[in-house]
Amino acid sequence: MNAINRLFKSKLDVASILLALNLLNLVAWSLGFFIHPFLYLATLLAVLMVRRSFSYSSVVCWLVSIVCCLLVLGYPVSAWDARSIWFFHAKRIFYGDNLYAQLDNYGSFSHNYYPVLVPALAASIARGAGYWNEILPRIAVVFVILPPLLVLARLVSNKSLFNLLLAGLLLSSRSILINGYMDGILAMYFAASCVMLMHMYTAEWAKQGSNKIAPDEIVLALMSTSMLLLKNEGSLAALLVWVCLLPLNYRRWRGFILSCLPFLFFFLIWKLQVSQFNVGNDLMSDGIFMRFSARIKSIPELALIGKSALKQTWIYLLTMFSALVFLYRFSMPKKLLVISCLPLVYAASVSMAYVITPNDLNWHLATSADRVYLVFNLSVLSVCGYMLNFVQDTHSNPLGLKGSP
Amino acid sequence: MKTLTFSISLSILVAAIYMFRKAQPWGLDFFRKSFSPGAGGEVLPIEAQEMLAILTETGRKEFSLAADLSGDVYMYQRTVEYLYPYRIISDGKVFFTTKPTSAKDNCREISKASKVYLYECN
Asked: Which of A157, A158, A204, B50 has the fewest Cβ atoms within 10 angstroms?
């Protein structure tokens, strides 16, 4: 109970409640019912009425979410993967009345082993409305994007910096954030997780080595669980976050157990069922080692992957290195500088998917590189935003920006 | 100075929201229909829309696709997902085609629309 009280005091309550509701909805579907969208709204309304005070940044997040809702309602799901994978899975849950409906592997092009956090939420919205259509269920993406936005709003407290960060996130993600793909959503979660990690490393409780569970840890655990259940690359993102938590959890058994819970939850609610139904992962299909060894020796193919990655990320790479050089002058804690490189580790690791892909490499890069590296791009922007905010807070206004709310 | 910085950053955010909105396809007609059952199929191929209408009319739950439809990856995937819970099976006894000439002698036309035909074979 103390941890929950502290969560409310930390102003991460709305984000954590939304994150928890999204995950509870998944559990509910696995047990044969669902969380009605009105329950979401009623819970949020209750929390907001209890809270009564709102920061400028959180109000901006709510306004952006309302804009996203209006945009989502103005066009049916039309992007290829959004239809063929994510909202097809939602439709299967809705009509099959079962979280695991897709595991019969009907429509195998649909990658039926993909996790279903957003599809389950979309199915709940359709079930709440009482019918399926091609427009309304996409509003689920807004429910899922809002929590990481609120986390960023809480941690990048400077109004001007948050304005610029949010502008950067929206411009960089373009249509990918709300078109029904999971990549933009995963990018927001990983960005918020990186920033949360940096915040935790400078937090007072971490410095004292307290064994008590901090609100930040609960939110990070919920975000890690969400990343695992968003899409396959989320496992890599959650694993990197877990590794970064290890030094913090040294001699903190409660923190360590909490950091492991997302993986246990993911295994129990999804992976176990997928393995029982024996639904295959095409990326890990037969010949993975042959493909790996063939491609790793092929300089032109590696160059192609590198060129594609650079094309998508060069401006963010430059931003990151410029920020690091700039911030080094302000004697930033070394730990923060190390964690700020986490997006780079993610980008390098996720590039391995192209090394082992069974598809034509040119086609795979052309159809997915902009989405896959979006995680890196948004994370870099968020990390830079947080570090500038940190400098602004710890030095006497070196950037000349309007202060925190 | 601080107010000026804040105003500039806010202007940039508003401009970003405007550009973000421009990157999204949007239609007032869709917005009006967003709370109607079955709305939004208009963005899909006309063949898929017609197949759904025929299946709804005839009450058949399973069907096959002739090679002219199943060979087109985009058409195939849109048919599978849009027509669900109607399911594609591979026995080929009841099938959709865009080319009526591809039907064999022992097949009869059950229904037709402007682009697709539904046949049943013995």
From this structure: A204
Interface check for B59 against chain A (CB to CB < 8 A): the answer is no
Cβ within 8 Å, pair B31-A129: no
Rounded to two decimals, the pTM is 0.94
- What is the full per-residue pLDDT of chain B (122 aa) written as tens digits? 678 888 888 888 888 888 888 888 899 999 999 999 999 999 999 999 999 999 999 999 999 999 999 999 999 999 999 999 999 998 778 999 998 766 677 888 999 999 999 999 87
Minimal C-alpha gap between B105 and chain A (Å): 30
As for the ipTM of the complex, it is 0.93
B118: left (phi over 0), alpha (psi -120 to 50) or beta: beta
Q: How far apart are CA B98 and CA B94, in angstroms?
A: 14
Best of B1, B3, B6 to disrupt the A interface by mutation (most A CBs within 10 Å)? B6
What distance in Å separates residue A229's CA from the closest CA in chain B? Answer: 22
Q: Minimal CA–CA distance to A22: which of A91, A163, A162, A116? A: A116
- A 10 A CB-CB count for B91 gives 10
